[in-house]
Amino acid sequence: MSMPQHRLLILDDDPEVGRHIGLIAERAGTPWRSVVRVQDFFLQLEQWQPTHLIIDLVMPEQDGVQIMRTLAERGCRARVAIISGVDSRVMDAAMRSGLEHGLDVRGVIPKPFPMGSVLAFLQQDAEQAPVAMGRGDAVQDALPLGGRDSDFSAHLWTAELERALESKQFTVEYQPKIHCNAEILAGFEALVRWEQPFGSPQLPARFIHLMEQSQLIEELTMEVFGQSIRWFATHFPESGISLSINISARNLVETRFVDKVLILCEQHSLDPQRIIFEVSESSAMEDPTMSLAALTRFRMKGFQLSIDDFGTGFSSMVQLVRLPFSEIKVDKSFVSSAVVSSESRAVVKSIVDLGHSLGLRTTAEGVEDQQTLRFIKSIGCDLAQGYFIARPMTGERVMDWINSKWGSTL
Ligand code: C2E
Ligand code: CA
Ligand code: CA
Fold first, then answer.
1. pTM of the model as a whole
2. Pocket test for ligand 1, best of 172, 221, 332, 398 (most atoms within 8 A of CB)
3. pLDDT at position 131
């Protein structure tokens, strides 16, 4: 992988971004330098003769378009990639302008996930033609770097996520759930976060699906379970409060999963009854026969099961009745629009009624205001979760939240 003939110069007014990209280049064996000022950028360009340039478009002193124009005027032959972060139309225009000025613009490095595209930028064959110039779709062709070979970039991602697991970069936030009527604490849902060394924490939507495609999800679930059970057993050793954990279809087929979580419960002297595994409706219905067997095992060991995002899949009542769930979570898309949409109110109400007629507890997630809480109370929904009650918080902040709301005792 080492390419000593390459030299990468990065221009970004945020030195952290420069350093982050530099570290990725280092992994690819490419020497790099990072500058925060335009003046230093042009100085390095003259003196160090970089072969690759990564440029932030939005700089306090000069914008990327101007910088690219100057580069073109100086007859720069280096390959150029732009750091994204601004509106995509602005980016398109900037790239187009660079191409039209005759620069070898190769694409866009997305923030905050530069890994795959930085490597692709550095490793493109010298022979590989730069994006065609003057063609209407030139910019489209160049976007995003590494995206043209999605297997390659998925592979890089998986490697990055694997390292993130090894170096313990995943943390957990907890979102409280309350009993609608008494408005007292019922439990918490554990939600994973990826704390990258640079940048803000990443939400699961950015990485869960990739982890589900590889076996990494099994390890991630155990990591989340391990962290949250430690926190939960420390702070709520004997209350009736529950802990909900999201699991994926893949955890259902993993035969040892139930045994592993059971051992952890025993180690922390926690009754499995207090643990709720949330499986999304679509995961559970992927293979209903297999799910039936797996979910029954969970219940036999004493765990509770919740069917998550209910209303978004296409399960029939028959399928639902067959599976041994203890709770239904009405999908937040219906709940958060209930106040403004009579259709949403009808869906929420019929799911709550369905749950009750099957003897299941019902939770509405996505409760964002007082009116919504009042509505779900009025239709007899058992539990509520949402920003109106509290946002997901670190374990430490949860304890402050409880103290401020109810005093130190629950
Ligand atoms: P979910 O299980 O449906 O979790 C609820 C999501 O809704 C969370 O997003 C939460 O922050 C958000 N939310 C909570 N209250 C409100 C509200 O009032 N309004 C709105 N609009 N949103 C609200 P988050 O944390 O980004 O998680 C997204 C999804 O990622 C989760 O959806 C879950 O499916 C998945 N996920 C999270 N943690 C894990 C995990 O440890 N393992 C697995 N397999 N999936 C996880
Ligand atoms: Ca959930
Ligand atoms: Ca949900």
1. 0.71
2. 332
3. 35
